[in-house]
Amino acid sequence: YMGSRAAKNIFCSVLSFCCLSRMGCRDSCSNVMNTIFTYKSVRFIEIKNRWLAAIYYALIIGIFCYIAVYSIWYKQQYQEFDPVVGTTSMKVKGAAYSTHPYYNLPLTVYDAYDVVNPALENNALFIATRIMTMKNQTRGICEGIDSTTGLCSHGCSSGETTYDGVMTGTCGPTGKFCNVYTWCPMENDNITQTLHGVGNFSIFLKANIQYPKWGISRSNFKTGLVDGLNRFTLDSLLFGAGYTLDFISHDGCILLVGIDYTCDLDKDIEQCTPKFTFTRIDPTDPTVFSHGFNYRFVSRYLTPQNEEARILYKAYGVRIVFYLFGQGGKFSITALTLAIGSGLGLLGIASLLTDVIMQKLFPHRELYTREKFDVIDDVNLHQIPSYIHNDVNDMEHPVGNHYDYVNDASHNA
After folding, report:
1. Distance, CA of 94 to CA of 128 (rounded, Å)
2. Pick from 155, 158, 240, 377: most CB atoms within 10 A?
3. Half-sphere exposure of 184 toward its Cβ, with a 13 Å CA cutoff?
C-alpha cells in the first residue's frame, strides 16, 4: 500500500519496467525492492587504539574550546544585541587668514562663518581650505572657457548653449573660445586664496544615541569637553586618516569619521563610550579626474544702478561625513542556549573525522571497515553469518551484535 494514487502509479510503472526487462520480472523487481526498502542502522565498534582515541578526544576538546572561548566568550553569543540608532550635530569655531595681491590687501581674515558653508548639514560639515572668488559678476557677453563645446574651431553657432552660457555666434578676442552670453567676468581658477590656520579650527561633535530595545540612551557630552571624545581639530581628524592639511589643502578631500557605539550593557554603563575611525574615501591619485572635493556657490546683490550682480565662490576643502554604527548587548538565556546547542551540534564532526582517519589512514583500516559495515538480508535469515550470533549453537533467537569489540593490539601481526 503506497498511500496515494501518484505513489501507486509510480510503483506500478517500476513493476512494469521490471517485468519487461531481460533480467526477468522476479529478479529485477526483487532488486528494486531491496534497494528501496533498505534500513541503515548505526553499528558501534570499540577499538583499543591509543592514537585513534587521542585524535578523537583532541577533536572533542578543540570543539569545546571553540564553543566556550570563541563562540560564547569572545563573540559574546550569550548576549542579545540591539543595533544603535542616533544622530550627530557639529559646531565649528576658529579663525583663518589669507593674503593675495589680486585684492591689494596684505591680510584677509576669515572666521568659521566664512569657512564653514553650508552652516548646517545632516551628519556632515565642510571646511574650506582654498577659495576662488569672482566679485562683481553681471550678465553680459564675454569669451567663454569651455574647452569641450565652446571652441572656435568647432564653430560658434548663435543660440547654441555650452557649459559657460549661450553662444553669440562670434569668436572671442583670443581666437580660441566663442563669445557667450553669461555671467561676466568668467571664472578664473588662478585667482585663489589659500586659508592659513584652518587646521586649528575646533570641531565640537555631539553624538546622541539610543538602544531602543533596552531603552538606554547615551551622549558623548555628559562629561564636558574632552579632546578626542567630543572636541577635535581639523588637523587631528586628518592625522587620524594619515594625512596632513598641507597635503590636501590644494584639492580638498572627503573624510569619513566612524563613531562605533558597540557596548557591553552588562557592565557599567559609564564604560559605554564611542570609538572613532578616520578614513579618506575620495581618490588619492592626483591624476584621477575630479579628485579631492570642491563646490561652487554664489551670493547675489543689487548694484547702485539697480542691476543684479553676484559673487561667485569656488571652495576647495575637507568634507567630513560622520556616521554612527554599533550595537548593545545584554545577557539572554535564550541566546546562551542557542549558542550552546549549535556548538554541541558540532560534536558529530569529531566522530566523522575520526571515522575517516580510521578507514583511510590507519594500518588496519580494512579490518575496521569490515567490522563496521555489515549487510543483513532479511529475506534469507537462515543464511545469517556465524559472526553475528551471540551463540553459534543457539539458533532459537538469531540476533546480530549491535556493538562489537576490536582489540587493535591483537592484529599487530
Report:
1. 12
2. 240
3. 11
Asked whether the beta carbons of 186 and 145 are under 8 A apart, the reply is: yes
- What does the alpha-carbon distance between residue 79 and residue 399 come to, in Å, rounded to a whole number? 51
CA dist., res. 92 & res. 94, Å (int): 7
Closest CA to 191 of 145, 147, 149: 145
Grid coordinates of 129? 581650505
Q: What's the CA gap between 221 and 211, in Å, rounded? A: 17
Please check whether residue 206 is in contact with residue 90, taking contact to mean a CB–CB distance below 8 angstroms: yes
List, as one string, the DSSP characters of 110-154. EEHHHHBSSS--SSEEEEEEEEEEEEEEEEEEEE---TTT-BGGG
What is the DSSP track for 91-118? EEE-EEEEEEGGGTEEEEEEEHHHHBSS
Cell of 403: 556493538
Reading the block at residue 334, the C-alpha cell is 535564550
- Euclidean distance between CA atoms 83 and 325, whole angstroms: 8
Q: Cβ(128)–Cβ(139) under 8 Å? A: no
Cell numbers that stand for 274 in this block: 564611542
Tens of pLDDT along the chain (413 residues)?
444 455 555 555 555 554 544 455 556 666 666 667 777 666 677 778 788 888 889 999 998 898 888 888 888 888 899 999 999 999 999 999 987 655 566 688 999 999 998 888 889 999 999 999 999 999 999 999 988 888 999 889 999 998 899 999 999 999 999 999 999 999 988 888 899 999 999 999 999 999 999 899 999 987 789 999 999 999 999 999 999 999 999 999 999 999 999 999 999 988 899 999 999 999 888 788 878 999 999 999 999 999 999 999 999 999 999 999 999 999 989 988 888 888 888 888 888 888 888 888 777 777 777 777 666 665 555 555 554 444 444 444 444 445 455 555 444 44
> CB of 309 within 8 A of CB of 52?
no
Contact 47, 370 (CB under 8 A): no
CA 139/CA 103 separation, integer angstroms? 22
